Amino acid sequence: MARLIIFANGLVPDLASVRHLFQPGDILYAADGGTHYALALGFMPSVVIGDLDSLTRADRQQLDAHTVEIQQFPRDKDETDLELALRIAIKAGHREILIVGALGGRLDQTLGNLALLSDAGLSACDIRLDDGVEEAFFIRSHCEIRGRAADIVSLIPWGGKVTGISTQGLRWPLHSETLFPERTRGISNEMSHEIASIILKSGLLFVIHHRQK
To answer: pLDDT class for 16, splitting at 50, 70, 90?
Structure first.
């Protein structure tokens, strides 16, 4: 199945910086106000999901003109619009998902967006948050990061220690080592090559890749 991109209603530092993220054949969803980012980039989402309280009248007119599918939910609900969009995406069979605009702005929303991806039920999926400058995601076994030398990579244990971490392509490598959530050893490593890889034996590791300009 083609990769899915979900536009969320967080912050995007520079719209131009996210253009390089898109590939031909991507399927596009928007979570409520994330519709604005999709339209500003010249994309029309195939589905818009949420309570629509952040959708402007102009955005709604464009969606209606293109007969975009809208799945509207009550404003009084237990889930954020992004959680609803993610659930619908997983139910539809998507396993490779890029979420744009889920970082920055309100800290509670950002932490909530990150916590969504820690669900063990998503372990078979490759889901990453990206605002064009930083990408953030969880790994339980291994991953590959593509960037440039001097890009910053931080490894943060989530919910407990992470064991057996080994890396390649980073300036300060780890060799079957353990990182602890109450310590900051994994912060601010650097890519030494265009591709870096990380493997681990146990635990949940939060990875942040900050692209240098």
So the answer is: confident
SS3 53: coil
- Amino acid 187 reads I
Domain edges within the chain:
4-132, 142-210
Share of the chain above pLDDT 70, in %: 100
C-alpha neighbours within 13 Å on the C-beta side of residue 135: 22
d(CA 156, CA 114): 12
Q: How does DSSP classify residue 211?
A: P
Q: Give 200's Cβ-side CA count (13 Å radius).
A: 23
Name which of 52, 59, 111 is nearest 77 in CA terms.
52
Token pair for 203: 């635990």
The closest alpha carbon to 130, from 1, 45, 48, 19, belongs to 19
pLDDT tens digits, 92-151? 999 999 999 998 878 998 999 999 999 998 988 999 999 989 999 999 999 999 999 999
Partner residues linked to 50 by β-bridges: 72
- Cα 202 to Cα 213: distance, rounded to the nearest angstrom: 33
Q: Is 91 left (phi over 0), alpha (psi -120 to 50) or beta?
A: alpha
> Architecture of 4-132 per CATH?
3-Layer(aba) Sandwich (3.40)
Spell out the CATH class of 142-210: mainly beta
